[in-house]
Amino acid sequence: MAHTLKLGIAGLGNAGQAVLRDLPAISEVVLGAVADVREKAVAACRAKNPHAEVHSSVEAMCQSRNIDAVWIATPNECHAVHAVAAANGGKHIICEKPMALSLSECDRMIEAAAKNRVQLLMHSKAGDPPIRKMREVITSGRIGRAIQISSWNYKSWLNYPRLPAELDTAKGGGIVFRQGSHQVDIVRCVGGGLVKSVRAVTGRWHPRFDTEGNYTAFLQFADGTPASLVFNGYGGFDMTELTWGIGEGGYPTAERAAKGSVVDAPVDPIEKYSEPTRAERRRRDGARHQPFFGLTLVSCEKGDMRQSPDGLYLYTDRGREEIPCAPFTDRAGELRRLYEAVLEGRPEFADGRWGKATLEVLLAIMESSKEGREISLQHQVPCTL
Amino acid sequence: MAHTLKLGIAGLGNAGQAVLRDLPAISEVVLGAVADVREKAVAACRAKNPHAEVHSSVEAMCQSRNIDAVWIATPNECHAVHAVAAANGGKHIICEKPMALSLSECDRMIEAAAKNRVQLLMHSKAGDPPIRKMREVITSGRIGRAIQISSWNYKSWLNYPRLPAELDTAKGGGIVFRQGSHQVDIVRCVGGGLVKSVRAVTGRWHPRFDTEGNYTAFLQFADGTPASLVFNGYGGFDMTELTWGIGEGGYPTAERAAKGSVVDAPVDPIEKYSEPTRAERRRRDGARHQPFFGLTLVSCEKGDMRQSPDGLYLYTDRGREEIPCAPFTDRAGELRRLYEAVLEGRPEFADGRWGKATLEVLLAIMESSKEGREISLQHQVPCTL
Lengths: 385, 385
Description:
The structure is a homodimer. By secondary structure, chain A is an alpha/beta fold. Chain A has two domains: 5-124 and 330-351, Rossmann fold (3-Layer(aba) Sandwich); 126-328 and 361-376, Dihydrodipicolinate Reductase, domain 2 (2-Layer Sandwich), CATH 3.30.360.10. Chain A is 31% helix and 22% strand. Chain A contains eleven helices and 15 strands. Chain A has helices at residues 14-22, 39-48, 58-61, 79-88, 103-115, 129-140, 174-191, 269-272, 278-281, 331-344, 352-371; strands at residues 5-10, 29-35, 53-55, 69-72, 92-95, 120-122, 146-154, 195-203, 214-221, 226-232, 295-300, 303-307, 311-316, 319-324, 375-376. A nine-stranded mixed sheet of chain A has the order 14-13-12-11-7-10-9-8-15. The first copy, chain A, has a six-stranded parallel sheet with strand order 3-2-1-4-5-6, sandwiched between helices. In chain A, helix 4 (79-88) runs parallel beside helix 5 (103-115) and helix 5 packs antiparallel against helix 11. Chain A is globular and about 55 Å long. Chains A and B meet through strand 7, strand 8, strand 9, strand 10 and strand 12 of A and strand 7, strand 8, strand 9, strand 10 and strand 12 of B.
């Protein structure tokens, strides 16, 4: 390959659209192809990207000579099949969260990537600048080891229009699979990665959608550090009330949707992904801050940390200090890391084994709730940051 | 007794001083006597309260005909002995938290109160107006049952001057016994009282004091509701940053102590309780808001709740609504409840069985951490609010 990486995007839903949106920010990666089974989505993309190949099947795109890598943004239940297809086509991979629906699917993905000597990276909020910076503060030793990690998120996930698969746990739907991935990634990253055990209770309290809408989880790391994870996706309280109004994109959150617009049923995929997409519609006014996925408080031996609007607040016996972070570039940052990993042939965070370990935690959250007991984990890997 | 209740205060430390401070707010209760082993504390009190009896022993005060009730504010390890002495003297009781150090001590207190037909009430932040109001919203059925409770508190507990016993877990010291009492009371009250199991990790990370300084606890109620409790007392991040600067007294918290004034050793009781006491010294400027013991988020089937500065915020599909609360009167409110309970001969919240159940949770938090497993509870009682 040349010093430009040609990317194929598998799936033009919200995640795929977000990749398209962020691609222009990194000149070393260019769009080579897109694939989607939905004609309308493909047509809209073709109109805007006339030079990119267009495929109606991911498998076909993965055989194209016009791409070096694939961003897997298809439905969760397809991640494994599509990642294996990409690897077998010799393409490097970034995979959306969750990595897959089972540990054996993860194994197949990891094996295919290894066999074909391609990079397999995970889309992960653990790689966002504030989370990396927290990890950096810990590994620097400045305030000692982590002793207590707590993460809360309350957001209106179930009140946005959702596809049927997003509301079906068997297909990777519900907030444990779809939102827990991020929270667990963040907490695992800060805590060093190696979760020893999980005790959790999940809830299915939405009046119409029979999938997880909330969970409370107690994790313990191998070094004994406890972590508390709380997520509620029903749309009452919103965590941005406690994060300067800043949400996941780093921008002030839009005003809440007018009340009364309660979502009653899953939406049709064609309707949902009619233009404009959510990625484009989201408010992007004003200066961009760092992204907030709820509120995470990290206590160490000699101080505490949490995100500030543009970096971190570090609390020690010298008072509160603000630490700046590198600008947040969203998926462009992940494309850059993929580019560097491919170019330099070295491992990058977060890889397939990391994604599998996070999935193991998610599955344990659901298993613990079902069985009413603590679950021991077997497939954890350390954070390489 | 007449329609005035004569109160004896056992112990003139912070809690006893707070009772003295709040007594004038309730005309139906008057000071009859005080008891403390420390001559200086007694002398200072006598100067301000010339009509009250003064005793150097709680047992002696409990035989006085000049009191109808005793507020037990002696060190935690003395609560049981002093409560039994009060009951055997025919005195009604309000006991500071934690109720005692063991469940068998609680049993002796409960039995003595029953045998002597006196009220045994617990000082508890679960009785504060915002917590009562949350419970009231739940029992009203307006937003359905509780499905998820989460409570965080980060405060500089270990950086205040502390007596040796406050830093000795064997004597009821450390933040599980001394601060966990409040957090568990609040969460049990909102959740209905009946905790089924506890999984927790406690930490002893203070560089000089070998007692619990933080904990993370996962509780499950008998109806399945999960609760997450996080407490950190080392003095880095302060939770009032997220509660409009309002702390436990309902007033804006004073500026932090100048940095560098780190506490290195336990303090001498005589020095600590020299005038002015902390209860008097605390900033009490401006309008009084409701008290905040950290931040507690309560999710129910149809909405969420948290405290607002002067009441509750209720989040439902109709948006955010503020619910006012009765004014916070601190220990005067508890004296009024004792007065009414005595006058009307009826049970009041929170009684001895409640205090014992909260202690059971605290002991389980420490046991779970020590043994690395979930602890099942046997002595829980429902919230009568």
